[in-house]
Design goal:
The chain is α+β, with helices and mostly antiparallel strands. Helices cover 30% and strands 28% of the residues. The chain has a single domain, classed as GHMP Kinase, N-terminal domain (Ribosomal Protein S5, domain 2). A hairpin with a 2-residue loop joins strand 6 and strand 7 (172-175). The structure holds uridine-5'-diphosphate (UDP).
């Protein structure tokens, strides 16, 4: 098996029908979420999702600055996605670029759909997403961790945002693409919802899929999102149990 070749002739599924990392088509990479990992943030979270390692700090709601950015009816959410220079195989030039600006925008909008922003006129909520190690699916992992960090900050929300990717590689519809599948595959769909209502708050797509493949991807996502939503809630309830346990000491 080799990774050399063109996107269409690369073998990403082995003869036993498994992916290069040994997963089945609808299998997630391991996910671990930890809450309240930063002392000075109002809320924070750390997520490991496969090889992704991402830290999120939430600050606010606080009076929006500069004043002309204030909205008299609601708070605005400013997420800043940032990828460390050595988070990837080939050093990334530090600082914002078109990709990080785009990701910051779509993540801000997804979070704003979940937060009850009307309760905080003239305020801003800052969300810093620091990608320390990247391995495909960082926008979704960052968004999933961000919504946990916002909840940990005690900011009122309609629901958590939960996300996952699906796509197509080596001609197969797959859940939660790995780096090779993302790089050499035929489609990649980052997808995020508010689970209580099913409202889609982020959906992007590279590549192409048939209607049947899209519907297969959606049913894989549906099952995975339920699982990830449980992980988010477990991480939050564990952080509260830890706080309550400290009071008893
Ligand atoms: N990547 C990279 N260098 C970059 C940007 C991305 O090596 O400057 C890698 C990184 O592992 C990332 C993956 O490519 O996770 C896929 O990037 P994409 O833009 O699809 O976003 P993501 O899947 O991380 O949300």
């Amino acid at each position: 098996m080799t990774l050399l070749g063109t996107a269409s002739d690369i073998k990403l599924i082995n003869d036993d029908g498994l992916r290069l990392d040994g997963r089945g088509f609808d299998e997630l990479r391991p996910i671990k979420i930890e809450v309240n990992v930063l002392n000075r943030a109002d809320g924070s979270a750390y997520i490991e999702w496969g090889g992704n390692k991402i830290l999120v700090g939430v600050y606010g709601p606080r009076e929006a600055y500069p004043k002309h950015s204030q909205n008299i009816n609601k708070a605005f959410v400013r997420a800043r996605y940032s990828m460390a220079a050595f988070s990837v195989d080939e050093r990334k030039r530090p600082g914002p670029d078109r990709r990080s600006i785009e990701i910051s925008k779509v993540v801000s909008e997804a979070l704003e759909s979940a937060i009850i922003v009307e309760q905080f006129p003239r305020a801003e909520i800052d969300v810093f997403i620091e990608v320390l190690q990247a391995d495909a699916g960082t926008r979704i992992a960052g968004l999933t961790a961000s919504s946990v960090a916002v909840a940990a900050a005690g900011i009122p929300m309609r629901d958590l945002v939960v996300g996952c990717t699906a796509g197509k590689a080596d001609g197969q519809v797959l859940l939660d693409l790995s780096k090779e599948e993302d790089n050499f595959g035929q489609a990649d769909i980052p997808f995020a919802i508010l689970p209580k209502t099913g409202e889609v708050v982020l959906m992007q797509m590279d590549g192409d899929l048939t209607v049947e493949e899209m519907s297969k991807a959606h049913s894989m996502l549906d099952k995975a999102l339920k699982h990830i939503y449980n992980l988010q809630r477990e991480a939050l309830s564990k952080s509260f149990t830890d706080v309550v346990a400290q009071w008893g000491e």
